[in-house]
Amino acid sequence: MSYDNNNIFAKILRGEIPCDKVYETDHAFAFRDINPQAPVHTLVIPKGAYVSFADFSEKASAEEVVDFVRAVGHVARLEGVSDDGYRLLANIGKNGVQDVPHLHVHVTGGKHLGCAFPPSAKTD
Ligand code: AMP
After folding, report:
1. 43-88, pLDDT tens digit by residue?
2. Would you list the DSSP string of 69-98?
3. 8-109 falls under which CATH superfamily?
4. What whole-number distance in Å separates Cα of residue 58 and Cα of residue 92?
5. Where along the chain do its domains lie?
6. Is 94's C-beta closer than 6 angstroms to any atom of ligand 1?
């Protein structure tokens, strides 16, 4: 999939639409999710034009990867969820039900989030 410059997170990065900014580095940007699923729900995105984690992990420079990974951890600390724990989620593509085609890691926490893969969710 090629990168769509008009996706909503590209517009946020260009300052064309507002966001609730949390943190910014040379290669990463973080802002609160507009439809939070937990008391803390923050999105961390690379500034580069990467469709997904798959795209980023293949094409990003080592500097971008390091910066991005450190930014995710830093955002969790900034948002106050590091001590009690939190969940990271990156949806990828159709089966991953990714809505916005710009890599984003969801940082969720601030309450007990339940089991992400309960036994009842098993299909076999
Ligand atoms: P995903 O399904 O992993 O692609 O998640 C996309 C996320 O982006 C959802 O949790 C949305 O609530 C969030 N989102 C969509 N538009 C905005 C926006 N303008 N500002 C902040 N979060 C947004």
Report:
1. 999 999 999 999 999 999 999 999 999 999 999 999 999 999 999 9
2. HHHHHHHHHHTT-TTT-EEEE---TTTTT-
3. HIT-like (3.30.428.10)
4. 14
5. 8-109
6. no
Decide whether any atom of ligand 1 lies within 6 Å of the 100 Cβ: yes
Q: What local confidence, expressed as pLDDT, does residue 124 receive?
A: 60
What residues are annotated to the active site?
104
Report whether residue 108 contacts ligand 1, using a CB cutoff of 6 Å. no
Q: pLDDT (tens digit, 9 = 90+) per residue, 27-48?
A: 999 999 999 999 999 999 999 9
Q: Which atom of ligand 1 is nearest to the CA of 91?
A: 3
Q: Which atom of ligand 1 is nearest to the CA of 98?
A: 4
- Is the sign of the CA dihedral 19, 22, 24, 28 positive or negative? negative
